[in-house]
Amino acid sequence: MTAEHTRHSTGGIALAADGLGLRYGGRSRPWSLRDCSFDLPAGRVCALAGPNGAGKSTLLTLAAGLLRPTEGTISTPERERMAYVAQDRPLYPQLTVGETLDLGRALNPGRWDADAALAVADHPGLRPNATVRSLSGGQRTRLALALALGKRPELLLLDEPMADLDPLARVQLMGLLMADAAEHGTTIVMSSHILAELADACDHLLLLHDGRIRLAGAVDDLLDAHTVLAGPAQDADLSPYTVVVTATTGRQFTALVRTEGAPVPDGWQRSEPSLEELVLAHLRAASATPEGAAA
Ligand SMILES: Nc1ncnc2c1ncn2[C@@H]1O[C@H](COP(=O)(O)OP(=O)(O)OP(=O)(O)O)[C@@H](O)[C@H]1O
Questions:
Q1: Nearest to 47 by CA among 214, 226, 188
Q2: Of 200, 219, 238, which closes a domain?
Q3: What's the pTM?
Q4: 48 C-alpha to center of ligand 1: Å?
């Protein structure tokens, strides 16, 4: 497979990977991302989840076109139609807030959405004449998000956007992002370790573990496909199901399974997992298998 980065969106797909892999620093180095294939439909708000070192930032950096794949392909919109907020929020420290927004306008002629940028940047902590180097981490994030939304992107790539924001700012900025996605059909991919935050906002999931895709798809479909079974331990026959994880507490047995349509035995309770339960179960299962192979 050839290594390439394709810039187009086709058939309503905003981001697609096919056999995508990356080794930092050449062939003798370990894989940071391996065999990643997925399609992200346009207009989705996608949670990118996974433990530290799973490859989330690597995938976002590849999507932003700042790294070339070692193998496989990644397809995105044209560079002008994407915005990327990296984990370290790169900005020019010597510029003021106002000059940074002016630069955003100058670099995006004909596309700059001053209202969208101002909706994020208009905040008492972000005075127009303050220099970027004087801003706190959370204020810098706010400015980086203002630049990204002002670009009016079709695809918005956000690496832990809420990590250094206070609780009020998180709620406000998450609301602005969701409103933007709803109004303009923006596709958003956001990484986070806060699963509850992702569950509230996202309708699509990419779960990475050890550089590989563990789960990918619409959140509703993934939740529908999984069931939590609870029953007495001595009756546990899970052979009809694909088992993700099991747990025994005293005589009570629970399992997260894909029932694949098989009936639930009498005396057992079934419930739909939360997104958080689903993610944690798959991460536990991946940690327990040597290769973290996808279920
Ligand atoms: N510049 C680099 N050079 C070499 N290895 C790297 C580099 N950046 C990341 N890696 C390695 O690639 C793997 C994936 O890292 P990545 O930063 O993509 O993970 P992540 O899921 O974003 O983690 P976190 O949640 O901690 O931010 C890790 O093993 C990491 O050590």
A1: 188
A2: 219
A3: 0.91
A4: 14
